[in-house]
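Hi Prof. W.,

I finally got the Diacylglycerol kinase prediction working! I wasn't sure whether to trim anything, so I left the full sequence exactly as given:
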Amino acid sequence: MRKRARIIYNPTSGREALRSDLVDILAVYEQAGYETSAYATTPEPDSAKNEATRAAKEGFDLIVAAGGDGTLNEVINGIAGLEKRPTLAVIPAGTTNDYARALRVPREDPIAAAKLILNPDNRFKIDIGKANENYFMNIAAGGTLTELTYEVPSQMKSLFGYAAYFAKGAELLPQVKPVEMSIKYDGHEFRGKASTIFLALTNSVGGFEQIVPDASLDDGNFSLIIVKDSSLFGMMQLMAKALKGTHVDDPRVIYVKAKDVVVTPLDKDDRLMINLDGEYGGDAPMHFVNLHQHLQVVANMDEIPDNALTAAMQKMEDDFVREIGGMKDPDQK
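And this is what came out:
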């Protein structure tokens, strides 16, 4: 039976250029051996999520999420909870495209992004995060500063990309207020005031690749960042350091790897909203679990740094050792 692919695309994502390339994109997946069809998302809630679930349950082998990080997050939430999960491909058409950036998928050329499927080696299994009953593929965050993502108008995001977040962030910095919280992670606990927390699965946060400089895509760990300092001057210092990746050594920052994290506000009157992949994902208390190598994705394997593929590189090394071990010395009889 011929393999099937379903393209789930957002017709209003980014600068709305995706539709003009759709025929050529369909042709690429047909060339790769997939009987391919497309679905345009609607303004209805969970449109992409529901279609992804339907296609997966009907036995589609490949789901292509074409749009911004919001569309991709919906698609992942549509398939991550299923026992049988199709392979996932990404065609970025949003503003920051964090996940595509981490997978080194071409972000300015949708057809080039689709053509990654033509190389059978461009596949590997990637970690996914679970936050209570929701899933995320890039980052979970909480704290006053992260609330700026809710306050940047979508039109401003489309026009200015992540520069819009900087503009709004500068405006909100004076309002940053720490929250007294408990953060339990892999047998340890931070208990005290924190301004911001991040749990990252990739190295790209809002288009910046130094905030989580050593993130691995498949090692089973979150990169957990807890920002303790909350003064205006301190936050500005840390933001400057984050652009260079030197914030991880700052004493005002806890930076660790963790598989299981529970975040709980200690004052019942404090509301701690949690941001999942750039959108509101509910309020803490929240339990985060890293689902190790949970989804197979299509990526630009030639461009992803070796240190971002811990488990994949280890498998390649193990396979190489086994292969060498099974070879006979041609000089021996």
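The CA atoms of residues 65 and 72 lie 5 Å apart. Does that look reasonable to you?

Thanks,
D.
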